[in-house]
Design brief:
CATH class: Alpha Beta
Number of helices: 6
Shape: globular
Largest sheet: 5 strands, parallel
CATH architecture: 3-Layer(aba) Sandwich
Radius of gyration: 14 Å
Structural class: alpha/beta
Distance between the termini: 28 Å
Helix content: 40-55%
Strand order of the largest sheet: 3-2-1-4-5
CATH topology: Rossmann fold
Length: 146
């Protein structure tokens, strides 16, 4: 197993935060840093991230990155208060691909993702956890979030 960081993605949702909290718990046990990742791509994604962040307003394309940054900053602050070392990444792109890319670039020891989307047709069509589990350059820990 690599001595690299633990990579965890968040979109600000309650289920994603369960996975982030699990990544923090693992990081404390292993003496690892957590790299929090948020991906963004369009106004519709930006709006959903803003809604998840409690903003409740549509977000224009040029604000998607800012909304993503606010989500990752909130999660980072929470983990730092728990004594976890944290780095953040806010990247344009599809969430699974961004997680895989960051994990490879950082020589991650593992990616932690929630199981949301692992059932029904989304599992067949390629949910984030399913895609990550098949293409990650490291181990993947899938957290039961629901």
């Amino acid at each position: 197993m690599s001595n690299g960081p633990i990579v965890a993605g968040t979109d600000g949702s309650a289920t994603a935060e369960v996975a982030v909290d699990t990544a923090a718990e693992l990081a404390r046990a292993l003496g690892a840093e957590v790299h929090l990742v948020t991906a963004y791509s369009s106004s519709s994604l930006g709006a959903s991230m803003a809604a998840a962040a409690g903003m409740g307003v549509p977000v224009a394309d040029d604000s998607a990155r800012q909304a993503a940054q606010e989500i990752v900053d909130r999660a980072s602050s929470r983990l730092k208060r728990q004594g976890v070392q944290v780095a953040t990444h806010v990247c344009p792109g599809e969430p699974a691909e961004v997680l895989i890319t960051i994990a490879g670039a950082e020589n991650a020891r593992m990616i932690v993702v929630g199981n949301r989307g692992m059932v029904g047709s989304r599992r067949v069509l390629g949910s984030v956890p399913n895609r990550v589990s098949h293409h990650a350059p490291c181990g993947v820990f899938i957290v039961r979030t629901s």
